[in-house]
């Protein structure tokens, strides 16, 4: 039996068109800190709730 589960994901995008998806806020923070020296232009973090089949 399949159930749908809601999960929040964080989408990090840059103006260059690159993007990464993270499962939680800690990973986002870590990623941004690690890449802060390069200061990606147009950094945006979106929070989305997605349906996940379990």
Structure, explained:
It is a single chain. With 54 residues, this protein is α+β, with helices and mostly antiparallel strands. It has one domain (4-53). Helices cover 19% and strands 44% of the residues. The chain has one helix at residues 25-34; strands at residues 4-13, 19-22, 44-53. A 3-stranded antiparallel sheet has the order 2-1-3, covered by helices on one side. β1 (4-13) and β2 form a beta hairpin. The longest helix has 10 residues, at 25-34. It is elongated and about 45 Å long.
Short précis:
This protein is an alpha+beta fold and 54 residues long. The chain has one helix at residues 25-34, and strands at residues 4-13, 19-22, 44-53. It has one domain (4-53).
Order of helices and strands: EEHE
Strand order of the largest sheet: 2-1-3
Number of domains: 1
> Considering DSSP H and I runs of 4 or more, what fraction of the residues is helical?
10-25%
Morphology call: elongated
Q: Biggest sheet, open or closed, and with what strands and sense? A: 3 strands, antiparallel
Number of strands: 3
Structural class: alpha+beta
What gyration radius follows from the Cα positions, in whole Å?
13 Å
The pLDDT mean sits at 81
């Amino acid at each position: 039996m399949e159930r749908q589960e809601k999960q929040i994901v964080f989408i990090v995008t840059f103006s260059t068109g690159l993007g990464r998806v993270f499962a939680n806020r800690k990973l986002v923070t870590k990623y941004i800190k690690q890449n802060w020296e390069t200061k990606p232009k147009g950094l945006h973090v979106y929070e989305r709730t997605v349906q996940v089949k379990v």
